[in-house]
Design a protein that fits this description.
The complex is a heterodimer of chains A (312) and B (310). Chain A is an all-alpha fold. Chain A has 15 helices and 2 strands. Helices cover 73% and strands 1% of the residues of chain A. Chain B folds into 2 domains: 73 residues, no CATH class; 183 residues, MetI-like fold (Orthogonal Bundle). The longest helix of chain B has 34 residues. Classes of the chains: A mainly alpha (312), B mainly alpha (310). The interface between A and B is large, with 110 and 110 residues.
């Protein structure tokens, strides 16, 4: 009883702050936590009930792991997992390398005005939607009008139906992911490099260190924590693919599914074309749970190595 | 995080810094960087050129960097079939303005509360937000919540509400508040008898304008560029935002012809399909391209704050 009284008193004392957090808290409950509860439909045979959302959840029949059976007995789970993880691994590590390389490159330029201009150019793609980018790609890959086929025909090579040839797409997708994403990451690293105390470099220069040695022994070690943190965050999201890249840039071409079918693509196409909520939810549940486990594990490992690099 | 004063004091008046490369290696690196940034910008320039290319030139030569004949046909066509396009621009503007307002209010309120030490439950609510960055509900349950629980299919709110809050923005906002609002100012206002709401409105918010600008910017870009919500929840063309219309037209050229019927153009006129499409891409991208150099600063600031652990 006393505990209850104290809690009430605390709530009352904090009423103004509770009012502050109320709107966003309601949002989180509806748009984040309700869907988390909604994960149970992965274990049910989902039927829409006329009494609304909770009734549908409640009255749908439990079917255990039946929805997962299809996913894991056929090759689907393996295929979408492989696609998602392989693409993301390439995106993460190639992206890290390019972003750090560009950041160091820009920080080394003597003319800071040029640095600013180049930085502006490289960040630009980040602000475009994947729909717009898909038009950009189309101007190059369109079968009858695209720039690349024009170039090929100039050299007497036969035109390629790009949107029907899966073998090229892993490269195209990686290129586009880098094209759109590297500028953003680069900015973060560049800001960190600019923030490094200049006296380190002065001391190194007095000792006769070359530019290369300065990069290796000052710049890189100084931005390593940031590299670690951003990479952990990315590995935590390795089960999630950038849906717009795979859906818009490929124009959702069915001929390319072999190389574009990531977990998100599968879930989206499952939801919109198959219409089997429960089966699709099973794939989504698998994604959320394994993704969550991955963040926790990566963070735990990093924490063991060095406390400062951990995310939480 | 970046010590700006430190950096600029080392930059001499002619823009030369002792930490940069010298001579030929500087020139080579400079050219390399120039090439990369050109690659990032070129497709947009290319699309602008195509949007001004005459249809017969496109039929004969495809997309050229310097077309044989220029024309305004694409834009003229869009102007004539204005019904759908103006409608979509209207939808995009509406969701961008209202969504951003809602975002800024909800995020600054929440971010401020969890930045205050007096708030007993601040850890609980920080966790409530942070946890959503680690674990999510997934597409299908979210879809069911929006369509069934909220009943927002073919409702403009379905384009606004799901994107209002992001935990990452709240974390940025909190960090900003902790850093840029001096404790002493709040203390003295409290001693003077100001209420918490008044302190927030009259002292904290004016001090945090850069942070609010940053969040508003993130939010504006999110709404302007979003096509996914429309893809999921909207079937009524009257409610298509610009990006969704673009996406629709790309996969379904017929849609453009249907648009023609809607706006009552005479049949039999050839549509400058590709140049009209590209003209739409230009129209939807131009606002970003033109304002980008001005807002870039806030964006970079928000990013660097967001990547700091506290």
């Amino acid at each position: 009883m006393k505990w209850f009284k104290n809690t009430l008193r605390d709530l009352y004392a904090n009423r103004i702050w509770l009012m502050f957090v109320l709107p966003a808290t309601i949002w989180f409950i509806i748009f984040s936590y309700l869907p988390m509860i909604g994960h149970v439909i992965a274990f049910k045979d989902f039927r829409i009930h006329r009494d609304g959302f909770f009734a549908s959840l409640w009255h749908s029949e439990w079917v255990g792991f039946k929805n997962f059976e299809f996913l894991f007995k056929t090759n689907v789970a393996w295929e979408i997992t492989r696609n998602t993880i392989l693409y993301n691994l390439v995106f993460i590590f190639l992206g890290l390398f390019l972003a750090v390389a560009f950041a160091i490159g820009l920080s080394l330029l003597a003319n800071k005005k040029l640095t600013k201009i180049y930085q502006t150019g490289m960040l630009f793609p980040h602000f475009l939607s994947w729909v717009v980018v898909s038009y950009f790609v189309m101007t190059f890959l369109s079968t009858d009008r695209g720039a690349i086929n024009s170039l090929l025909s100039f050299f007497g090579v036969e035109a390629i139906s790009w949107y029907y040839e899966p073998i090229y797409w892993p490269f195209i997708l990686v290129f586009m992911a880098m094209w759109k994403g590297v500028g953003y990451q680069m900015i973060v690293y560049l800001a960190a490099i600019v923030g490094i105390d200049r006296s380190y470099y002065e001391a190194a220069m007095i000792d006769g260190a070359s530019k290369w040695q300065q990069i290796r022994h000052i710049t890189i070690p100084m931005i390593t924590p940031l590299m670690m943190i951003l990479t952990i965050m990315n590995i935590g999201r390795i089960f999630y693919s950038d849906f717009g890249l795979f859906y818009q840039v490929t124009q959702n071409s069915g001929a390319l599914y072999d190389v574009t079918n990531t977990i998100d693509m599968y879930v989206y196409n499952g939801l919109t074309t198959l219409g089997d909520m429960s089966m699709t939810a099973a794939a989504g549940f698998y994604q959320s749970v394994v993704g969550f486990a991955l963040v926790i594990i990566t963070n735990y490992v990093v924490k063991k190595v060095d406390e400062d690099y951990a995310l939480f | 995080m970046p010590k700006k004063a430190n950096n600029s004091s080392l930059t001499l008046t002619n823009g030369y810094t002792p930490y940069g490369l010298k001579g030929i290696s500087n020139v080579i690196l400079s050219i390399m960087m120039a090439v990369f940034s050109f690659i990032c910008l070129f497709p947009f320039i290319y699309v602008i050129i195509i949007s001004f290319t005459a249809e017969e030139s496109l039929i004969r030569n495809g997309f050229q960097i310097i077309p044989d004949s220029w024309s305004l046909e694409g834009y003229k066509y869009l102007w004539k079939s204005q019904g759908q396009i103006l409608r979509s621009i209207g939808v995009t503007l509406f969701i961008t303005v209202f969504g951003t307002l809602l975002s800024v209010v909800m995020i600054s309120l929440f971010g401020y509360a969890i930045s205050r030490k007096e708030f007993k439950y601040r850890r609980l609510f920080t966790f409530l937000a942070f946890f959503t960055m680690l674990f999510g509900g997934g597409l299908v349950p979210t879809y069911i919540v929006v369509t069934q629980f909220l009943g927002l299919r073919d409702n403009i709110l379905a384009l606004i509400l799901p994107l209002v809050v992001q935990a990452f923005w709240i974390i940025i906002m909190r960090t900003f508040f902790i850093r840029s609002v001096p404790e002493a100012v709040i203390e003295s206002a409290r001693i003077d008898g100001a209420s918490e709401i008044r302190i927030f409105m009259q002292i904290v918010l004016p001090l945090s304008l850069p942070a609010i600008a940053t969040i508003a910017l993130f939010s504006t870009l999110t709404y302007w560029n979003d096509w996914f919500q429309a893809l999921l929840y909207i079937t009524d063309p009257d409610l298509y935002p610009l990006q969704a219309l673009l996406s629709k037209i790309e996969s379904n050229i017929e849609f453009l012809k249907e648009m023609k019927l809607i706006s009552g153009l005479q049949a039999g006129i050839t549509i400058p399909e590709d140049s009209a499409k590209m003209a739409m891409v230009v129209i939807s991208t131009l606002p970003i391209a033109l304002s980008y150099p001005f807002f870039q600063k806030y964006f970079v600031e928000g990013l660097t704050v967001g990547s700091v652990k506290e």
